[in-house]
Amino acid sequence: MAKLTDKSIQALKEGIKSDGGGLYLEVRPNGGKRFLMRWTRPNGKAAKMAIGPYKAQSGVGGGITLKQARVIVAEHQQLIADGGDPSQVETKAQAESMTFGDAAEQYLKTTIPALTNEKHRTQWRTTLMGGGRADDYCKSLRKVMIADVDTGEVLEVLKPIWASKNETASRIRGRIEKVLDFARVKGWRDGDNPARWTGNLEHVLSKRQKLKNGHHASMPHGEVSEFYKTVAIDLSAGAACFAWTILTAVRSGEARKAEWSEIDREARLWVIPPERMKMKKEHRVPLSDAAMAVLEARREYECDGLIFAGKGGKALSDMTLAGHLKRRQLPFTVHGFRSSFRDWAAEESGHSFDVIETALAHKVGSAVAQAYMRSDLLDKRRDLMERWGAYVVDCEHH
Description:
It contains 17 helices and seven strands. It is α+β, with helices and mostly antiparallel strands. A hairpin with a 5-residue loop joins strand 2 and strand 3.
């Protein structure tokens, strides 16, 4: 059996061709070529795994050369001889040949199953992998070796759409950042994340413009976690109240006037009375682990009054919370974090419109529909707020 060569590979049509030793090259219907490995497990069952996309020895960009593929298969065959399972490990040669596209594909395998909404799964995949769409934002980036991705390559993706499609660009930036963090954890790259906003891209890309027509400028939800960390380390009542506002997705006035008597620790519930709600209707807020942690940090100030009391025991002003944004020269509003939550919930939580709107204490449906709506969907909202809290506190793992 003749061994494969770059020349013979170029001439191959659709199908699978063996190179020997368990290494195969597959030519797919669309013309794409990738290396496969086949072997037999100890129980006698046949096994197959993808090694990586083919790249000619003289080629540039991502992929695996024929020589590299042979090295990888040789390493796997030795592992099999030692009683191991190649599908459970990754060789050094594979890691060194990993592109951003490869890493994004691996990241999506861990992320997409957690998204219950088909639309959101499609959005994640098309954002990073293109999916045949004309606006394939990350096309150039997918070919770059994951270890070599730097700020220049990230900006090549973002700059063309940063002004015209700022919300989309912000989401893409956040997703690229997550893939790069994932790659660092997997050992495919080292160093700082070139897609990080704070202390990095904020110096070369313009800040988002404030929205007009009465809307509140909101921080892209992918940036909320980094901002939250700067608030969480501040021990002041204002910072704690801001953290609470973000985690509970309430209006700032509702958070600033929160009282200890409204908290049911055992039920992990905050019951806001009608007179403090915009719609003049009692609102129950399920408290996530993250929100309970903020509450616990305030226990030394616990009394019969306000949870986040200012000087003289009075309620904090909205300017106290806004000051945290102003000092960092961020063009967002405190109220805008409700929009950040709304965007995240619609895009990534998988929960229905009714659940999300109820969490925001908005009216859902017509007057007739409201009359028939007997439940405030507390159990579903509890799951929603727990996910949001986890996302805010530790965004890179969600």
